[in-house]
Amino acid sequence: MSHSSTNLQFNVQPGGSLHGTVRVPGDKSISHRSIMLGSLAEGTTHVSGFLQGEDCLCTLNAFRSMGVAIDGPTDDGKVTIHGVGLHGLQAPAGDLEMGNSGTSMRLMSGLMSGQAFDVRMTGDASLSKRPMKRVTVPLASMGAVIDATEIGTPPLLVHGGSKLQGIHYDMPVASAQVKSSLLLAGLYAQGETSVIEPAPTRDHTERMLRGFGYAVKTDGNHISLQGGGKLTATDIDVPSDISSAAFFMVGASIAAGSDLTIEHVGMNPTRTGVIDILRLMGANLEILNEREVGGEPVADVRVRAAPLKGIQIPEALVPLAIDEFPALFIAAAFAEGQTVLTGAEELRVKESDRIQVMADGLIACGVDAQPTPDGIIIKPGNFTGGTIDSHGDHRIAMSFAMAALRATQPITINDCANVNTSFPGFVGLAAGAGVRISAA
Ligand SMILES: O=C(O)C1=C[C@@H](OP(=O)(O)O)[C@@H](O)[C@H](O)C1
Ligand SMILES: C=C(OP(=O)(O)O)C(=O)O
């Protein structure tokens, strides 16, 4: 379910700084995959730290509607999944509603291609505009039969009963969702399914498949598995989402006097581009108490305010920070000197066109932001404040909420209900740490 039509408004007064210790909700990518793999495993999977955001609840409800018994989530994020095995799903009574979630739609396209029954997957207004050919085209070459609109957007009708054949696919886009969709279809395919990534992307699917006892080979940028195996239930401790932590990293970096510790943050090296980019800009981030939790590296991140400088963002870091650019653009708006981003055209096909929507918001606040086809040029200036249209994009809304820490005027952000897709409790947590935010 998505509330994108509800015009929840954030009102953020200027000034303040961030202090204390916060723990942001569980990782969205890992939470989705815990439900998918737990449902298809043999045995009972216990998940803790599950993200109770609307996106992951769409995935959870989809598997429930296909006959998987799932207990929870409890208030503290515990979910128990009674797996039905790779061939134990049942046809759902109605459509699978994927809400705002690209991850659900794209990963499930692969999984559903291997089932014996037909499934129709729908999305909200934003998801209904997002490109699906990036998965439907390679899945079709594996033998899947998927109907989409003429331009390749949802709803998707995935036909059951296809005999899938493993393929070797040279991915044109660096996308973890495409990689994952093909690997998940590969569980049902004959022979080997292998992908080559043009650049490293988040590797949670590979790590978690291995955690469920499924052999996945990684050889540089080449990832492969053999169809016909089985998944064995396991326990999953979901770390906090570094993509949610990023708002606080930026907020504490830009707001003078801040000293904030963000606990239990997932530090998977395919996700830490935001830390590398902020450090290149001069941020003061200290990584403490590094440990491993359920196969994923985790740490506490202490952030103290520091003067930031504008940089040319290295393109190799783009896929490793793909969801953090709205927050990073705010950091750039308060840096000294211009920041230039290139090689990031993928940002134009997220929940909103994140290049254009961020540029519009920055300009509304008095900053010189120039969108380019594959990035942006941000020349920091006098960040006043103003009214922002988040276009129903959670990450735009949270980024501008943090910007108010350094603005000179209030910031009003419209269309914020979708913050609940990835970060339920954001307003309370941000207010507790020092952002002067209220929601109406
Ligand atoms: O695999 C995943 O869990 C995700 C992959 C990324 O998308 P792309 O694969 O489109 O880059 C990211 O933007 C999204 O929030 C989550
Ligand atoms: C792009 C995102 O998610 P999804 O693709 O799952 O909608 C995101 O959370 O920033």
From TrEMBL:
Biological pathway: Metabolic intermediate biosynthesis; chorismate biosynthesis; chorismate from D-erythrose 4-phosphate and phosphoenolpyruvate: step 6/7
Gene Ontology molecular function, alphabetical: 3-phosphoshikimate 1-carboxyvinyltransferase activity
Alphabetical keyword list: Amino-acid biosynthesis, Aromatic amino acid biosynthesis, Cytoplasm, Transferase
Keyword Amino-acid biosynthesis belongs to the record: yes
Binding site for phosphoenolpyruvate: K28, G102, R130, Q177, R354, R395
PROSITE patterns: EPSP_SYNTHASE_1 (PS00104), EPSP_SYNTHASE_2 (PS00885)
Pfam families: EPSP_synthase
UniProt-listed InterPro entries: Enolpyruvate_Tfrase_dom, Enolpyruvate_Tfrase_sf, EPSP_synthase, EPSP_synthase_CS, RNA3'P_cycl/enolpyr_Trfase_a/b
Superkingdom: Bacteria
Entry binding sites for 3-phosphoshikimate: K28, S29, R33, S175, Q177, D323, K350
Task of the protein: Catalyzes the transfer of the enolpyruvyl moiety of phosphoenolpyruvate (PEP) to the 5-hydroxyl of shikimate-3-phosphate (S3P) to produce enolpyruvyl shikimate-3-phosphate and inorganic phosphate.
Family affiliation: Belongs to the EPSP synthase family.
NCBIfam families, per database record: aroA
Protein name as it appears in the record: 3-phosphoshikimate 1-carboxyvinyltransferase
Gene: aroA
